[in-house]
Structure formats: C-alpha cells, structure tokens
C-alpha cells in the first residue's frame, strides 16, 4: 500500500486537526466580537483592556503563546482549585489547545471586525438615520452588508491562518496529522512521501475553505470597479 | 455524567480519602523509545516500561492510564498534575531529584554512541572534534555531551525525541547519536535504515550525571503513592513477574548493578 | 526569575558561546528571508497581475501551494523530506546546502514570504486606479516605463500596510525554525525550559522579546507610512 499501513493513523490525525481548527474558529469568533465591541465602546477602561489584549497577543508568535499558555493553564487552574479545596479539574490536551488557539486568534478576529466596521463611511450610517431608519434597521440593511464586504477577505484570511496554525499542535504533544506523518516518516525513512501527503491534505482543507467562501465574497462585492491592466 | 457531577463526586472522594482517584494511576510516557516504550502502527503502546507499569498496577489492583507527553516536557507536566507518575526511561539523577522524587530503580542500561560503520569514530571528544553529535533534549545524554564534549569542539545538537536524531544521522546531518544501548539496538540498529551503523565505544558513563538507573518519577508530595509503588516493585521482583517481562525483551540482566 | 535572566541573557540575545543564537539569529533569519522574498515577489507580482494566463497561472500555482500549506509543514518537507531523498544526498553541491538546518529554514521562509508578498503586491497592482494607467498609455509610455514610473510606486505605497503585516508575520513565523535545529529565540527558550523547568519564565522572556521587536517594527512601519502615504494622513489643524 502506498502509505504502508499508516493510512488510518494519518486519517485520524487529519480529523483531529480539523476538529481543533473548527472549534478554535468558534472560540476565536466569539472572543473577537467581544473584544471588537469593547474596543469600539465609549468607555475608555474597556477599550484600553481590549487594546492591550489585541496588541500583546498579536505581538507574540502563536507558537510561543501556545507553549506558554498550554502548561500555564493547567497550573493556574490547579492553584485555583487547590486554594478552594476542590478536586482537580483536568483540562484535557485537546481542550487546552482549542482554548489557547481561540484566545490567540480572538485578537486577530477582533482587529478584522473592528477594521471592517470602521471602513464603512460614516455618511452611510448618518444617511440611514436621516431617512428615518431605526439603529437596528440601519445596522442590518446598510452597515452590515458593507461591513461584510470589507470583513470577508480579512476573516477568510484569519480562518486560513488559524487552520494552518492548527498544524502546530503536534508540538504540544497532540496526536494530529503532522505528528502521525512524523512517526510514519521516521519509521519508514520516507519522510518526503508523508510530508507531501500532509501538505496535500492541508491544501485540500484550504481549497475547500476558499471555494466555500468565494461566492460569499462575490455577493458582497457587487458594483466595485477594477482597473484594466 | 456531566462535568459538574464528576467534579462533585471527585470533591467528595477528596474529602473522604485525601487522595486523588485512588483507583486510577496515570503514567506519563513518550512512546518513541523502543523497546522500553513505543507505539505500534495501530496506535497501541508497547514496551518493557509499559509492561512494568501495567504489572505494577495489577499488583496494586489499580487501573493504569497512559498519558503521552514529550520527554522534555515530562517534569513540568507531572507538576501540572497531567499525570501522577513518569515511566519513560527517566534516569534517577541528582539534578532531577531537586524537582521531583523517584520510586525504587526499575532498570539500568549503559549508553553508547551510534556512528556510521567504517567512520572510525570513537566516543571521545578528541575523536569527535569538529563533528556533530545529536542527543535528546532533556536527557542525561544531553547533559553529558554539553558538559564534556561541547567545550572541546564537538557540535552538540538537541532534538525533541531520539527518533528525530536518528533520522538526521541516517540523512548524514549528524556524525553520531548518543543514546541508551538497548534503545539504539531496537529502535535503530536492528531496523532497515540502521543497517549501515554501529555502536562505538567506549561506554559513556558519568556517575554524577547518569545516576544509577531509571525509576518512576513522582511529585515530591506524593509520599503515599511512592510507598505503594515501591512495595509493588518489590512484589513483582519477588513473584518473578519482573524476570518474566525482562526475558521477553532482553537476553542480559537489565536490572543492572 | 532573576537567576534565570542572569544565567541565560546572553543566550536569549545573541550567542550561546558557540554559535549565534536567540534574538540575533531570529532577526538574521527575518532580514535574509524578507529581503530575498521581496526581490522575488515584485517580478512575480507583475506576472500574477498580468492578463496573459501563461504568465499568471504558474505564479498562481506557486502562491496557491505556499499559501495553502502551513509554513511548519513546508519546513518539514524541505528539512526532513528533501534531506531524506537519495538524489539530494548524492549530489555534493545540493547536500552541502540542504545539510544545514539554517539553509533549509531560509529556503522555506523565503518561498513562503515570496508567495504572500506576491499576492499582496499583485492585489495592489490590480487596484491601480484605471485613470492613471489610461493616462500613462495615452501619453505613449511603454509598458516597462508604465510599471516603473506609475504602477509600481503607487502599488507599493498601497501595499505598505498589508506588507508591514506580512513582515511582522514573518518575524513570528521564524519561531518554527527550532524544529530544523536552528538556535533561534524560541529554541533558546525551549532549552532553558528543559534545563530549569521554569516554563512560564523561560517562554515569557522569549514572548517579551518578540513583543519588543514587534513594537519596534510597527513603529518603523508607521514612520514609513507617514513618509510614503503622507497623502492619506489626517489633516492637521492649522
């Protein structure tokens, strides 16, 4: 067999990588919306905290943050449960990885969402309110569609970066696709074959993502004129 | 059962017997080290350490859970309570005793340098001057190489696990790898890609750095667990289980001096 | 914490006594990869934005593959994968090059940043205001002159914010170099952690150093934006 019996291991690893990526996306999106709203809020304390969060997190490599948070999370939780004399709550590696990735990429999502929100010309909102729309209506019919046009490329990009970052969880000891390929490659001395397989799997993931998101991007970009080169 | 119920029962157990999950012992292992611990293609953990751990649990009538972790992250993970004991061919050294405690000795095997056949290299700093040697990060071999060889002009490179070092030895990036003699034999020299390689003497040993054998790594405060494990180790020696398991893998006395 | 800094500060910053390590190595990787990547990206971007599909398609394939796969996997492919091929090991020239973890890392980082930069510059070129291009053609500029005088200066300015992002991503991306045994900043942190088991401190110091360099880069790019994108700055009150 081409994969020399390691097919099941690789498939299981690929599934795990995908699960980590999708769950982290959810976590990151939720944290991102919260942080973006805080940053745009009028209260300077909330905005300052959110700004500190996005600035610090985006200033440190995700790998370094992953290593830093992954071990510290459990130690801090242990200290907390110990001080309350509760039984230890175990964070399993999968959950720790998802929380870590979600926390890191929440900062990137926050910036994308905030940038998109600010990119819509102020006049649009003013005009909508002037013709008598309520705030909710204005947001839904005027602000949001235009915001999505600016946000989608950024969000697509954020998702792709997150997906590729999920390939690093093997360095946290998780049994993902890269870890499986490493074991298979080193055992059979055919690293080139197995890493090519990994690359192709990731390529498939990113291609499917882009294909799924392109119709959306096109729908939100109607009527924008491009130059003729 | 949801997290809350589990947590409450755990809390009650804690109050009742002052010990976390007395029926389950979690051992941390990095399964890249045959014949002591390795992973088959189907994902099953096998090896001498695995068998010993399971035998100890049977002796204690406890349930064994094996948690995989990288070797260099083993001690922090133990302290973070990701598991209760380390069975991963971890040598009992004075340096490690500062951080954790150990059970009684499990086994003791020598260490050698693996080199390409015909390269005429010896395990001495003079012979290896200007050459590259690979070691596993966090291992006693790393401590040894960095202390005695690196200052004498040998390039010492560390790897997350020894199979990564072997891969670089095979591809020619390294001129030698220091590792446990039995592991060298089983993980590398007896495999197809290890055919052109051999062990070069002299035996690598330093009493201070190497200690006298491997043991189960434990948190310093888990005194009760240590006593239980030590009594189990003594029991499996007495009833012949240890010898039976050792004969499965080794033709020599692996318990050592 | 203080003993850790006292014992290892030199490793973190520039050398472990034997080779360049730590921050110096990280910055060295960044400078080389970004410089070569930038030089490769401009011709590639022009080809990518071109209407001729025989020019655009191959470049598209290149950026598609390198942006669609993680840098970590690309590095593993070049370091472990190419290193395991008989063909590479047999040729002395190729082997001398790919034998070194440093070279493999540079190749992977360069190709990766070239792919992303190509897409950024191509996007900026495609976003050229159609009026400028028409005007240039109308007064009889050749294509070469058109690109050199009108399109590229304009496009590079437009691309500056996105490119500054890319450089910062590159800085962060260099942290995977430690898997190719290159002693960069993260590897020093991993080594210190293995030696002292003070995980939070070991990685925390590395994180702070990355943060500091990121801030410096952001500041530098902001100054560049003030100079080259001056026409976009908010008006001052006179």
Helix content of chain A: over 70%
Return the CATH topology of the largest domain in chain B: D-Maltodextrin-Binding Protein, domain 2
What does the overall shape of chain B look like?
globular
Helix content of chain B: 25-40%
Largest contact between chains = A-C, 41 and 50 residues
Question: In the CATH hierarchy, what is the superfamily of the largest domain in chain B?
Answer: Periplasmic binding protein-like II
List the total number of helices of chain A.
8
Question: How would you portray this structure in words?
Answer:
The complex is a heterotrimer of chains A (229), B (257) and C (238). Chain A is mainly α and 229 residues long. Chain A has a single domain, classed as MetI-like fold (Orthogonal Bundle), CATH 1.10.3720. Chain A is built from eight helices and no strands. In chain B, helix 2 crosses helix 9 (223-238) and helix 2 (48-60) runs antiparallel to helix 10 (241-249). Chain B folds into two domains: 2-108 and 212-249, D-Maltodextrin-Binding Protein, domain 2, CATH 3.40.190.10; 111-210, Periplasmic binding protein-like II (D-Maltodextrin-Binding Protein, domain 2, 3-Layer(aba) Sandwich). Mean pLDDT of chain B is 83; it is low at 14-21. By secondary structure, chain B is of the alpha/beta class. In chain B, 37% of the residues lie in helices and 24% in strands. In chain B, the strands form three sheets. A five-stranded mixed beta sheet of chain B has the order 5-1-6-13-7. Chain B has a five-stranded mixed beta sheet with strand order 10-9-11-8-12, with helices on both faces. A three-stranded antiparallel beta sheet of chain B has the order 2-3-4. Chain C has 238 residues and is an all-alpha fold. Chain C has a single domain (2-232), classed as Orthogonal Bundle (MetI-like fold), CATH 1.10.3720. In chain C, 80% of the residues lie in helices and 0% in strands. Chain C contains eleven helices and no strands. Chain C is flat and about 70 Å long. The chains are: A mainly alpha (229), B alpha/beta (257), C mainly alpha (238). The interface between A and C is large, with 41 and 50 residues.
